[in-house]
Amino acid sequence: MNWFAHYFPNVVTMKADFVTATGETLYMVAITAIVAGVIGMAMGITLVVTAPGGILANRLVYNLLDKLVNLFRSIPFVILLAVIAPVTRLIVGTAIGTTAAIVPLIVGAAPFYARQVQNALVEVDRGIIEAAQAVGSGPVALVFRVYLRESCSELIRVSVVTLISIIDLTAMAGAVGGGGLGNLAIIIGYDRFETDVTVMALIIILALVFLVQMIGDWLARRTNHA
Amino acid sequence: MKLDAMIKLQHVDVTFNQQHRTVKAVRDVSLTVNRGDIYGIVGYSGAGKSTLVRVINRLQEPTAGQVEVNGQNMLALTNKQLRHARTKIGMIFQHFNLMNQRTIADNVAYPLKGSGLDKAAREAKVAHLLELVGLADQAQGYPAQLSGGQKQRVAIARALANDPEVLISDEATSALDPKTTGAILALLKELNEQLGVTIVLITHEMDAVKEICNKVAVMEDGQIIERGSLLQIFSQPKQPLTKDFINTSTQVNQAIEKISQQALTLSDTQRLIHLEYVGTAADAPLITELYKRYGVVSNILYGNVEILQGTPLGNLIVVMTGDQANLDDALNYCQQQQIHVSPVKLKQEVAQ
């Protein structure tokens, strides 16, 4: 371990901090993924079924949701963090800390995921939907037994993209007081000129990203029979 | 005795409102399909065939008109009733529309959920259906592993899952090669005979109609321009479009084109004639009679006999040689024998 102490002098003394920070990052990613996943999935499905020519076409709902997603996708995340601080305070009680960071993370990630889900679902051939309608399937069956089932592999793929994007966002949230590896990299590593801390935080984040990508790709391949 | 009319469309209109114009895809179409019919609807793409048949199971809502299937007013149904009614109207498509992520067996089982059958009964039914279409050994495979013809067989099994009374075939053979087309048509015919399922078959190929249909309607520009029994339509087509479809199918069109290319020159004592005959007229030794009675020599350039629903239908293109009076007498004689006579116009003449 000599070379490690040589190249990472500050990291060696901060083992506990790294464990905590990694835990915080995983916590933020997990909660955000679950909540934004559910919200984004619901929004994505709604976009597809209410779109013109969709199985429950509804111009008003579609346009409203479409504009809303566009709006939130346009706000840079750093600014979003600041802008929704009052809302965060209202929900969590504070605008600072790991749990508080989850609110803007969800608001940032859900519309992104919604668009990804929408793109995955519209890939399902219109003819397949028609064939299911022809045998008597209603909207619920069409969503759960056709749309989601047929695009399963594609959904896994876009979920991976979203998950990686959430990991990216947590690092940014960390920089403004959210804790986690981003916090460690900027507040300790960058501000105190302890570059080895920044590099170590980066290595852990990259490892997380690669792991997610690998597992995701494998699952997507396995579930695709087309 | 059950109701004879299985499908009854009355004065159906379908109008699409596009941004700058309205398109009348179906215009005032009335059509009755009887129980057990294999009813062919022929027309070029864009004629409104697909839109029309989608009105039957309300995949397409009609703008106006009445739709009855098996005595049930389809337009009066609630959403739930409509979904149930649709289980009794099977449908197959040009591009098969199978679910790629489900196994063959799962595709066929798809319509059975909610049918009240338990798991074992569903599995038995799927096995039986796959047996029926000749794909029992492929049950656990995925659609991507099948050929076009096999995919269409799976689609047929799926369409039959809920024992429908009607099967709608929307260009189901148009993406298949001729041999596979023949096999799929034979399967449809078999299902019609064995299960008594009424079939509506849309196509742009008269050959498919000729193969299995007992009745035909010809569509153009959103309207049915001609309809009747298969034999009627083939032996006495009235509309130019119908004639065109039939002459393409019997290859008379192609024959005339070839004859035209050979720069055939006819003298005053020769005439190029197209003879069409149906049923018993086909049995008489016509060519010999013409020579014996009038001294007219007939040189056959093209001949074709189709057997439609057990009745022969013949087409001959001949050059008749003889003097003018005899030729006229010979043609009169043909007409007396219930043979349809028409002079053939070569393509160059048409062009001039």
UniProtKB/TrEMBL annotation, chain A:
Any GO BP: D-methionine transmembrane transport
Places the protein is found: Cell membrane
TM region positions: 26-56, 77-107, 160-188, 200-220
Keywords: Cell membrane, Membrane, Transmembrane, Transmembrane helix, Transport
InterPro entries xref list: AA_ABC_Transporter_Permease, MetI-like, MetI-like_sf
Gene Ontology terms: cellular component: plasma membrane
Primary location recorded for the protein, binned into one broad class: membrane
Span of domain ABC transmembrane type-1: 22-216
Pfam family, one: BPD_transp_1
Membrane topology: Multi-pass membrane protein
Cross-referenced CDD domains: TM_PBP2
PANTHER family per the UniProt record, alphabetical: ABC TRANSPORTER PERMEASE, D-METHIONINE TRANSPORT SYSTEM PERMEASE PROTEIN METI-RELATED
Family assignment from sequence similarity: Belongs to the binding-protein-dependent transport system permease family. CysTW subfamily.
Record protein name field: Methionine ABC transporter permease
Source organism (scientific name): Levilactobacillus bambusae
Automatic annotation (TrEMBL), chain B:
Location of the ABC transporter domain: 9-246
Gene3D superfamilies for the chain: 3.30.70.260, P-loop containing nucleotide triphosphate hydrolases
Any single biological process term in GO: amino acid transport
Pfam short name (any one): ABC_tran
GO molecular function: ATP binding; ATP hydrolysis activity
SUPFAM superfamilies membership: ACT-like, P-loop containing nucleoside triphosphate hydrolases
Sorted UniProt keywords: Amino-acid transport, ATP-binding, Cell membrane, Membrane, Nucleotide-binding, Translocase, Transport
Record's GO cellular component terms: plasma membrane
Residues annotated as transmembrane: none
Record field: catalytic activity: ATP + H2O = ADP + phosphate + H(+)
Family in the record: Belongs to the ABC transporter superfamily.
Task performed by this protein: Part of the ABC transporter FtsEX involved in cellular division. Has ATPase activity. Essential for cell division and viability.
Protein name: Methionine ABC transporter ATP-binding protein
Species whose genome carries this gene: Levilactobacillus bambusae
